[in-house]
Amino acid sequence: MTDSRWFGRTLELRLGNPGHGGFCVARHEGRVVFVRHGLPGELVRATITEDRGGSFCRADAVEIIEASADRIPALCPVAGPGGAGCCDFSHATLSAQRAIKASVVAEQLRRLAGLDMSVDVDEIAGTGNGGGWRTRVRLAVDDRGRVGTHRFRSSDVITDLRCPQPVPGAMDGLDDQEWRPGSDVQVAIDSERTRHVVELEPARVSKTGKRSPGRRGAMARRAAAGGPRAERVVDGTGKPVQRVGDREWRVGATGFWQAHRGAADAYSQVISEWAQASRDAVVWDLYSGAGVFAAQLAEQVGASGTVAAVESSGAAVADGVRALGDLPQIDMRAQRVERAIPELPARPQVVVLDPPRAGAGREVIAAVAHHGPERIVHIGCDPASFARDVSLYQSEGYRVEQIRAFDAFPLTHHVECIGLFVR
Ligand SMILES: C[S@@+](CC[C@H](N)C(=O)[O-])C[C@H]1O[C@@H](n2cnc3c(N)ncnc32)[C@H](O)[C@@H]1O
């Protein structure tokens, strides 16, 4: 019988392969243990942090008995047992982090898409030593009004802002401010250190356990469905400026922009190279944010082509419309992709999709494939949902032409994949 009372026990474990989500896999008495803060091959003592009695449990490495040659002193001062949730691998060299991510990407592609391929994880310009790349930060406020980050898999807030990920200046002075208990804080900053800091009203936990903002009636329903929460601008009169090529966007803390300061540029180059849209063609940019890829596609199709860009956030569309006013071939729609597809201009030659972490899913991919584009470029920041989407393209008759991966979230387990699919 499975012993479900391992919680709090400390075990000596030899760590095996990295798994998806920032763990190494170990085995003990017939069970799988997912261990954080170790590295493949290490012998560690690890304390069980979660045990629900199933075939696996979770643990944190608390002592390294035999260290990997890839181990370095952790960049994150609070990464480690019971520490913050964001830095999974700040104790590994950058090349080891990338090797771990490459192995996770290959494993997910094999398991979920039946593909046997290895994909290198490329550096993005501006990464430095692994810290100082993040231009957008999400923070939480505890019940005493102190700002910090969530403890791993917990709603507790660690009020230590020495996170190595943000670009310099992003966190300055935030712990001197007065915050509303339970609120969320979003920060955006640009290369000139123009900063925008917004406090979002506290989310309320309903009887069903769902978080919804502290509002009544229609406002609450809209917010519970993902609508806006009341915002207080704490810092910043102007929105940070983001540049790709010679174009610029002004995107505030609650708008969307790729988190790594070099990411929008890196992905735009891949999209330009892979899309190969003809002059006058119709193309779609789905989940378009403020239209950074739409701008690249517009250059390719020219003034008499059409770029249909679909994005559910009205604020992101407004940022895009302001930045792309000189490109009338771009039609930006504030709509959900699922609803927009039947109304988009027919016969797209190329479709670009950059969905949120959960991926595009069966319904959207089937609808895109139904329109028969010659080429599909798909971007995903979660290797498992990316691999599931790859499998859906294959079952719709597309084959994988190329896949690239980028180390867009150094120190964390996240990795961005881009695939080119052709019929
Ligand atoms: C990963 S971001 C990509 C943004 C953009 N491609 C970029 O690089 O700046 C995903 C975007 O999809 C939007 N989104 C999420 N669900 C959506 C849906 N169902 N329909 C349309 N847009 C959606 C989000 O608001 C977000 O801007």
Please explain how this structure is put together.
This protein is an alpha+beta fold and 423 residues long. The protein has three domains: 10-86, OB fold (Dihydrolipoamide Acetyltransferase, E2P) (Beta Barrel), CATH 2.40.50; 136-189 and 195-235, no CATH class; 241-422, Vaccinia Virus protein VP39 (Rossmann fold, 3-Layer(aba) Sandwich). The protein is 21% helix and 29% strand. An eight-stranded mixed beta sheet has the order 7-23-24-22-21-18-19-20, with helices on both faces. Helix 1 packs parallel to helix 8 (383-395). The longest helix has 20 residues, at 94-113. It is globular. The termini are far apart. Residues 256-258, 264, 287-290, 292-293, 310-313, 316, 336-338, 354, 356 line the site of S-adenosylmethionine.
Number of distinct beta strands: 24
The number of helical runs is 8
Rg: 22 Å
Beta-strand percentage range = 25-35%
The unique ligands bound to this protein are: S-adenosylmethionine
Could you report the average pLDDT, rounded to the nearest whole number? 91
Question: Which regions contain 5 or more consecutive residues with pLDDT less than 50?
Answer: 212-225
Q: What is the CATH domain class of the largest domain?
A: Alpha Beta
CATH architecture of the largest domain: 3-Layer(aba) Sandwich
Question: Kindly, what is the distance between the CA atoms of the first and last residues, rounded to a whole number of angstroms?
Answer: 50 Å
- The CATH topology of the largest domain: Rossmann fold
Molecular shape? globular
Major sheet strand order = 7-23-24-22-21-18-19-20
The proportion of residues forming helix, as a percent range, comes to: 10-25%
CATH homologous superfamily caption of the largest domain? Vaccinia Virus protein VP39
- Please, how many domains? 3
Main beta sheet: strand number and arrangement? 8 strands, mixed
Classification by helices and strands: alpha+beta
GO biological process, one term: rRNA base methylation
Protein name: Class I SAM-dependent RNA methyltransferase
Domain TRAM: 4-63
Binding site for S-adenosyl-L-methionine: 258, 287, 311, 354
